[in-house]
Amino acid sequence: MKIYDAENQILGRMCTFIAKDLLKGEDVVVINAEKSVLSGNPRWKKEHYQVKIRRGDPKKGPFFPRYPDDIFRRTVRGMLPWKQAKGRKVFKKLKVFTGVPEEHKNKQAEKMQAADASKLKTTYITLGDLSTSIGAKKRW
């Protein structure tokens, strides 16, 4: 089982590595999902995700998540072969948490150097800030 800390990590780059690990057959746990980063203009990112949420019918869908852990899972899901049985099977091996749960407090979490947001030269927004701006109630 691999444990990744998403604090100050670029969301898309981190999710590509996680998707590859899942397809290899590993169990993956992600902690601090609300602290992961989306690069780009924060105002544009908020508008982009608002459009995704407003799309469709409130009763029939398509539905898009508002909470950081759910958005993280949905991003990884987009990188897996979801329409095949293999993709759905490996997606169940992914656990995403906001904050650090008790069972993973004392375990060592990995940080990916390829996804480090400190090297960004552009503006960015954290997944937690994005979630609150698109209507999620703070539960982390």
Write the CATH architecture name.
Alpha-Beta Complex
**Class by SSE composition:** alpha/beta
Here the CATH topology equals: Ribosomal Protein L13p, Chain: A
Radius of gyration: 15 Å
Helix-strand sequence: EHEEHHHEEH
Mean pLDDT across residues: 94
Q: What are the low-pLDDT stretches, counting only 5+ consecutive residues below 50?
A: none
Shape: globular
Percent of residues in helical segments?
25-40%
Classify the beta-strand content into a percent band: 5-15%
CA-to-CA gap between the ends? 24 Å
Q: Sheet bearing the most strands, described?
A: 3 strands, parallel
Kindly state the number of beta strands.
Answer: 5
Which CATH top level class fits? Alpha Beta
Structural summary, described in words:
The protein is of the alpha/beta class. The protein has one domain (2-133): Ribosomal protein L13 (Ribosomal Protein L13p, Chain: A), CATH 3.90.1180. It is built from five helices and five strands. It has helices at residues 11-23, 42-54, 68-77, 85-91, 127-133, and strands spanning 2-5, 28-31, 37-39, 94-96, 124-126. A three-stranded parallel beta sheet has the order 1-2-4, with helices on one face. Strands 3-5 form a two-stranded antiparallel sheet. Strand 1, helix 1 (11-23) and strand 2 form a beta-alpha-beta unit. It is globular.
